[in-house]
Amino acid sequence: MAVARRKQRRTVTLKSARELALMREAGRIVARVHQVLREAIRPGVSTAELDALAESVIRDHGAIPSFKGYHGFPATICASINEELVHGIPRPDRILKEGDIISIDVGAIYKGYHGDSAWTYPVGEIGEEAQRLLDVTREALFAGIAQVRPDRRLLDYSRAVQEYVESRGFHVVRLYTGHGIGRSMHEPPEVLNYVNPAHPDSKRRFLVGMTVALEPMVNVGTWETRTLADGWTVVSADGSLSAHFEHTVAVTPEGPRILTTLDEDERE
Ligand code: MG
Ligand code: MG
Question: Which ligand places an atom closest to the C-alpha of 245?
Fold first, then answer.
């Protein structure tokens, strides 16, 4: 789940080793949900089935879905298909088809701490452009994560993501941003996926102990978006395909530590 840019409290909380250990557990549970859903995604499956599966994995691990009830969101996952980029509501009548792409965003709370991660998956065989969009958005996330070091500023992350995406001819969504995360799913700072030096958080440094959810959303045809009449589902303004990749990352003295993986040395 992403937040639209807005004014908010500006204090960034730095996490202790104990808090980071709990966030690592929350992140591992989120990664396990992705592993289970990756196996389950195929033509003929409904997004409501994926949602039920995700909720059972989270609860089996003694955790709570972060999204369910958040500002009234009715489900455990956001399931967003093709031109939908985020906040798609799972439904029994949304059936995956061969060639679709589906973005799954999921968060879990473990002992009071959140993990948050999104991934876009192919449904069966997908087209060349769709595959390129997935590859570019995923690699843009990792180009950004490489900037998560105590000697860099948030702006360095934003620039790395935007340059990676635009040099490959796609467009970075502007309205939704990454965010601090911890006891709350959305904490300061806001982490933009495009360069805006005027944003108050852009000049902040990545501080050791800071935990951020980094989440580029990329459209094929335009950076602009609109929200559907259900009040939740966000789509690309021109109906072109959209992808979303997100990890929760801690800043350490050595650089980024991804919290939302099963194994520390894995990328997903
Ligand atoms: Mg998310
Ligand atoms: Mg998020």
Answer: 1
Instruction: Classify burial at 152, counting beta carbons within 10 Å of its beta carbon; exposed 0-12, middle 13-18, buried 19 or more.
Output: middle
For residues 73 and 232, is the Cβ–Cβ distance under 8 A?
yes
Judged against a pLDDT cut of 80, whether residue 7 lies above it is answered with no
Mean pLDDT of 16-40: 98
CA atoms of 239 and 187, how far apart (whole Å): 31
The Å distance, Cα 107 to ligand 1 centre, comes to: 6
Distance CA 50, CA 201 (A): 36
Residue-level pLDDT at 116: 98
The answer to whether 95 touches 69, Cβ cutoff 8 Å, is no
Question: Between the CA of residue 49 and those of 33, 46, 52, 126, 234, what are the distances in Å?
Answer: 13, 5, 5, 21, 21
Structural domains of the chain sorted by starting position, each given as residue range(s) with its CATH number in brackets: 3-258 (3.90.230.10)
Confidence of residue 115 (pLDDT cuts 50, 70, 90): very high
* β-pair type (217-219, 171-172): antiparallel
Pick the ligand that lies closest to the CA of residue 244: 1
More confident residue, 71 or 264: 71
Interval between CA 247 and ligand 2 midpoint (Å) = 8
The number of CA neighbours under 13 Å toward the Cβ of 235 is 15
pLDDT-based confidence at 267, cuts 50/70/90? confident
What is the average pLDDT value for the chain, to the nearest integer?
95
